[in-house]
Specification:
21 helices, TIM Barrel, 4-stranded antiparallel β-sheet, globular, 12-stranded mixed β-sheet, 3 domains, alpha/beta, disordered N terminus
Length: 572
C-alpha cells in the first residue's frame, strides 16, 4: 500500500510547521512536526514555560503515507456550511474565538449535547463530573430544543446527534429528549453511556424498549475490556463486567441492535484488552456494530514522565490490533483515514437522495477499517478481501468531479420552451439521468470488487431505497473498527482544530447557541463556558436534581468507600 504512488515521499524525512498551545499557559505558539527514529514528533517552545515535546505517531511510514494521499484529497469549506456564530473578540485567532469563527473549514457531522454532568460513576480522568466541578450542568428541555434547532438549521444540517455527559441516562426525561431529536430530523440519535439506564435490574429492559421506540438508534457504550481487574483500574469499581453484560442482553431483547463499544486506551492499562474487545464484538455481532478505540487525551497538567508512560497514538493502537489478531487486521493494508471516503460518501448521498455525512476532518483525527462475515466460512475477515480500496477511492473522486460539473448545469431544455410544465419534464429527464449514473457507478465498482455478491447487494439497497435506514443493510454483519485520538494541549495542532467535524452545542444565558469544536472545548473552553451556564450546588439544587443517582453529593465518596469500591446492586 505504501508503494502505490512511488516511494520518494517515504524516503524523505517528514517536516512541517503548524501552530499549537503551551500546555501551561494555553497561549498559542509555533510548533514543528518532524520525523525522528521512524516516529513523528511535535516540538514547541513557550517563551515563558520552556520546551515541550510529544509523540504524534509511532509509525513515520504510515503517517507519511496518510498525509501524502490525503493531500490529494483535500476538501475546502463548502460555501456557507459554517456561517460564523461568534464575535471575533480575540485577535490571536484560532482557537480562541469558538463558537465557530471564519477560520473553521469543515461542517459539523456529529452534534454533541452535554445533557448533565451527573453520573453514577466517579472516573478519575473524567472531564465532566459534578463532584469534581462543584456545580451542576443540566440544560432544560427548552435549551436542548434550541441547540437541536441550531444544528439542523445550518446550510449543511448535522445528520447525527450524540448525547453526552456525565451519564445522560440518569435524566428521567431522556426518552423525551430522544423523541425531540427525531422530530428535528436527526438521522441517527446516539448516546454516549456507561450503560446505566439500560442495565438496571428493576425496569432496565422496559426502559431500553422505551428509549428505542422514542428514537434512540445507537449506544456509544463505554467498554474498556472483559476483565473486572481492568475496570477497577479505569473506573475504580469492582465486578463491573456483569453490569456491562446486562446492557448487551437488554439491548438484544429490546432489538436495539446498534452498539458501538468505546474503549479508552492508555498504555500499560487497557491496551492489553484490545484483542479481547474485538473478539467480544465478534461474539456479539448481532447487536454490536462497531468498536471505537480512543487513545487517552491527557487533559490538565501532567509531568513529562507521566505523559510518556500513558501516551499512546493511533498508530500504536493499530499495531496492537495487528499483533492481537494475529495479523488479520494489518496496519500494512487495512487502515485508512476517515477523510479518504469523503467523495465516495457524497456520491452515495447524491445518488440515493439522502443527507451527506461530511468526513472532511484532518487525516490525524481518526482511522477506520471494516470486518465482514464471510458467507462461505462464517468467519470475520477484512473487508479489504472484497475490494481494492485505493482504486475505488480514486475512482470515486473522479466520478464526483463529473457529478459536480454536471450539477452546475442541469438540463433545462423543456422549461425554456414550456414554462412550469416544462420544469416538470426537465425534472423527469434529470431523474432518469440519475438512475443511469447509479448504474454506471455500480458497474464501475464491480471492476474493483473481488467478491461482488453480498457487498454489491448492500451498496445497491442504499442507492435504490434512498433512505438512511437502508445503510443498516451495509452495517449488518459487518464490524466497523476505528481509532480516534482527541487532542490535548501537549499534541494540539490548530490545523486539526480547523477541520473538526464533531461540535458541542451549548445554550447560553443570552439565548444564543455556542458551537465549539470537540478538542478546543475540552482543552480550552469548557471551564469558562460552564461557569456561565452552571447551577451552584445549593441545597435547593440538591433537592431539585438527583445529583448523585441515589446518593447525596456529600455522601457518595463515603458510601462507596464503605462498600469496598463496589456499587451496590440495589442502586441499579
Amino acid at each position: 500500500m505504501y508503494h502505490i504512488d512511488g516511494t520518494d515521499y517515504l524516503k524523505t524525512p517528514y517536516y512541517s510547521k503548524t501552530r499549537s498551545l503551551c500546555p501551561e499557559c494555553l497561549q498559542r505558539i509555533g510548533a514543528e512536526i518532524y520525523e525522528e527514529n521512524d516516529q513523528i514528533w511535535m516540538r514547541k517552545t513557550c517563551p515563558d514555560h520552556g520546551d515541550f515535546k510529544d509523540i504524534i505517531s509511532s509509525s513515520a511510514k504510515y503517517y507519511k503515507w496518510t498525509h501524502y494521499k490525503t493531500e490529494n484529497w483535500s476538501f475546502d469549506k463548502d460555501g456557507d456550511a459554517n456561517p460564523p456564530d461568534c464575535e471575533i473578540t480575540d485577535k490571536r485567532g484560532c482557537p480562541y474565538n469558538c463558537g465557530l469563527c471564519p477560520e473553521h473549514l469543515s461542517t459539523c457531522s456529529l452534534a454533541l449535547i452535554d445533557l448533565t454532568n451527573r453520573c453514577n460513576f466517579n472516573c478519575n480522568f473524567c472531564y465532566a463530573n459534578v463532584q469534581k466541578a462543584g456545580y451542576l450542568i443540566e440544560p432544560s428541555l427548552e435549551e436542548i430544543d434550541r441547540i437541536m434547532a441550531h444544528f439542523r438549521n445550518k446550510p449543511i444540517p448535522a445528520p447525527s446527534i450524540m448525547f453526552t455527559g456525565g451519564e445522560p441516562t440518569v435524566r428521567k426525561d431522556f426518552p423525551e429528549i430522544c423523541a425531540m431529536a427525531k422530530k428535528h430530523g436527526f438521522k441517527e440519535v446516539i448516546v454516549a453511556t456507561n450503560g446505566y439506564g439500560f442495565q438496571r435490574k428493576n425496569g432496565g429492559l422496559e426502559w431500553t424498549k422505551k428509549v428505542f421506540e422514542a428514537g434512540l438508534d445507537t449506544l456509544y457504550f463505554q467498554f474498556d475490556g472483559i476483565n473486572n481487574a481492568t475496570y477497577e483500574k479505569t473506573r475504580g469499581i469492582k465486578n463491573l463486567m456483569e453490569y456491562k453484560q446486562r446492557v448487551i442482553e437488554n439491548c438484544r431483547k429490546a432489538e436495539l441492535t446498534s452498539i458501538v463499544l468505546v474503549a479508552t486506551i492508555a498504555k500499560g492499562v487497557t491496551d492489553i484488552e484490545i484483542g479481547n474487545i474485538i473478539q467480544y464484538a465478534i461474539d456479539n455481532i448481532d447487536v454490536v456494530r462497531g468498536i471505537t478505540f480512543q487513545p487517552v487525551a491527557l487533559c490538565g497538567r501532567i509531568t513529562a514522565e507521566d505523559m510518556q508512560e500513558l501516551r499512546i497514538t493511533n498508530a500504536d493502537v493499530i499495531q496492537e490490533i495487528d499483533n492481537q489478531t494475529g495479523g488479520k487486521i494489518s496496519i500494512e493494508s487495512a487502515w485508512y483515514p476517515l477523510t479518504t471516503i469523503v467523495e465516495w460518501g457524497r456520491i452515495i448521498a447524491y445518488l440515493a437522495d439522502i443527507e451527506p455525512v461530511e468526513f472532511t476532518c484532518h487525516p490525524d483525527c481518526g482511522f477506520a477499517t471494516y470486518l465482514a462475515i464471510d458467507p462461505e466460512t462464517n468467519e470475520m475477515v477484512s473487508i479489504m478481501d472484497y475490494f481494492d480500496p485505493l482504486k475505488i477511492i480514486d475512482f470515486a473522486n473522479k466520478f464526483w468531479d463529473k457529478i459536480k460539473n454536471k450539477e452546475k448545469e442541469p438540463i433545462k431544455f423543456f422549461s425554456s420552451l414550456l414554462g412550469d410544465f416544462g420544469e416538470t419534464l426537465d425534472k423527469g429527464v434529470n431523474w432518469l439521468d440519475k438512475q443511469q449514473l447509479k448504474a454506471r457507478f455500480l458497474l464501475a465498482m464491480l471492476q474493483h470488487t473481488k467478491k461482488p455478491g453480498k457487498l454489491m447487494e448492500m451498496f445497491s439497497r442504499v442507492l435504490i431505497d434512498g433512505k438512511w435506514d437502508s445503510i443498516s443493510a451495509f452495517t449488518h454483519g459487518t464490524l466497523l473498527i476505528s481509532s480516534m485520538h482527541f487532542q490535548d494541549a501537549y499534541d494540539f495542532n490548530i490545523e486539526r482544530v480547523k477541520r473538526c467535524i464533531v461540535h458541542f452545542g451549548v445554550a447560553m444565558p443570552d439565548g444564543t447557541v455556542k458551537e465549539v469544536s470537540f478538542c478546543t472545548m475540552n482543552t480550552l473552553h469548557r471551564p469558562e463556558i460552564e461557569k456561565q451556564v452552571a447551577k451552584k450546588l445549593t441545597e435547593k439544587v440538591k433537592n431539585e436534581f438527583d445529583t448523585t443517582m441515589g446518593y447525596r453529593v456529600d455522601e457518595i465518596d463515603q458510601e462507596v468507600a464503605h462498600n469496598g469500591g463496589t456499587i451496590k446492586d440495589e442502586e441499579f
